[in-house]
């Protein structure tokens, strides 16, 4: 006898959205590795049955339907559907095949067997056995199970039976698995990636990762629930398509009767005691298992565990919770208020609210508010801060608004400001901050910390430097009006006021880029932060370290900056500081440093790691992730990949922009679209213009340069290059070499070689692999030679700047001295092939195009006139265009031809024309 075989495969969804213009029908689920295994098992001579086991809603019915389509032309396919109403009826599910039998015959096993044989013979396809597809096999009666087993043993049929884990496969069928003649496949909940693919398949377009992740989380990976949630959100108008991107416009789920029906259908197998226990867990989750056993009974709890409706709460605690959030949301919405209050009183007296357990704290505070029960302001504030940090903004607003004690009003207002900001309601966030004033009755430490944290919040929500500096002035005035600071209060308290005002000024300096003034002030704060009392010391030092890192990053010392941010992140901050953006303030600068030095993978890992550790898992898939991925794609020259990422990012950031990335995202999208000549560029330009100043100078300066480069790509009149030169000059005034290099690199990419010496010096003075590879590239352009171009190509390729590496390799192959060694040409060609493959240009034709770029007709007109010796003004008059347009086109031609100026133009043009004529 063969050993039983089992396959534990996840139900994978690979339904691709494609670029379909119309909505596809409800997609089949392509079960990836699972479906081929099942089809192979069905076709195997030694396999007579296949069991597909998984919880209700994981897609077993869809899988059976797909199997019917696969085998429909090969063998007779017979669908059989189990039903709870027919469980006690012998042969009940076989009634469609036994309609001609009398009542007496139905009680005869032989008559039933003969009738089924006649039916199978009547629909026979080919010579193989029929395929019986049995859905909900756990509902089959014993007589039917025995009959199906007999059909299989006689070789008349094979069975594919789908059922839930409990009660599981009926015993008569299960014997085939124990005998080794059956295969077993487990269906598992969808992974986050599979959930995203299913959402895109359902909607037929791009879906924000944050949107699909929200649906997947709410459904707990359950396929049926996820599909129901998507369709429900679409029909209710909370799921909309904007600029080709699907996203949710409302944080609060809107559930319909249809969803309630789906949930009730999946819960119909449990007893009355089990339902009461389920309601209690839904209202209180996560709840202590021992307590719920006492209140609801161990048998009811075990029933829910057996039915896979509840699971351990995690975190190493003996807690229970529902298997997916949507069960809880629907159950809480249908439990009558009186019953909810009764259960609340029944349970709350027996349990302690676990303040250190975020899930327990949030659920109990929310439940208490729902019931109208009193909640201490201390717990309200703790829960509100936690909700704001987890981006549960509507819940945070509700909790903060319920706070009454004056002692907690400062933090409550900050929660309101942050929550409004998270929801994209900037005006209301500003209004909440405006209500805050220095509380004269508060102690000096509380006044100081509140002022600094409020200023940090102002910076985080994108308010101007002048508003932030005004916060410092208010604090200074308060300090001057407190004579007790010189006597009754300690000198440390007096020093804290001065130091706090300095920190607030530094926050303003971050916004307007006043790096020269920031340097000495940062050193003073770092030197004196240890002299202040209590929680102020880590607050001041953490902010100062992060701000110094930001400044050093702008000054081109990104690797040193990263060490400072890591030191800031290691400082233990008071828990209430979470709501004031302090963790994000630090983590954002860590990602920025990684991007500045060219550590692309590290930047993405840091972003994911922060959100995983902070509990804001959904934000991992939000706008920031799209911006980081789009930024990296542009740096690598993959603008075609960057544009859809940035388009999706803009739509995510349009509603919620916790890191003030909208302007940078819009500028990069404009740059990418303008370079591709797409009409969407105008929309992105309007987005950038409407953005305003809502960011740190470090990000805003990069955004401005991307935008100016996009203008040059769009207009080709030289004005964009001129603006980039001005940006570089402005950065140089503050010694911001990274920002200077950013502007010069974009100008060089547009063909401007007028500042090549400065480009080389600035790149060499900037830390990081990306900058150093640019320095090598600049020197190669300056001095020429195949060996230099090859070295630059290798360094650029190592830095994953594939577009520039491809250009350098092409210049190496086109250099007059390239034939000195065959080895050099071979290395250059191999490098060029790799870069073209990375850029999606793997064919030989596109590789040749990288070596000898094509010029447009207008560019050839201008080049030919320039070769004839005409000046820029003469060319402009001849072609009836502006001088700036001529300059812009010439800059591009220099870049495409790999030269630095007019003196090399004649030779390069001749090579290009010869190559194009032979090609």
From TrEMBL:
Pfam families: GerE (PF00196)
Record keywords: DNA-binding, Transcription, Transcription regulation
Transcription regulation in keyword set: yes
GO terms of biological process kind: regulation of DNA-templated transcription
Transcription regulation as UniProt keyword: yes
SUPFAM superfamilies attached to this UniProt entry: C-terminal effector domain of the bipartite response regulators (SSF46894), P-loop containing nucleoside triphosphate hydrolases (SSF52540)
Domain of life of the native organism: Bacteria
Single Gene Ontology MF annotation: DNA binding
Domain spans labelled HTH luxR-type: 848-914
Gene3D superfamilies the record matches: Winged helix-like DNA-binding domain superfamily/Winged helix DNA-binding domain (1.10.10.10)
Renumbered residue ranges of the record's region Disordered: 1-24
PANTHER family documented for this protein: DNA-BINDING TRANSCRIPTIONAL ACTIVATOR DEVR_DOSR
Entry protein name: DNA-binding CsgD family transcriptional regulator
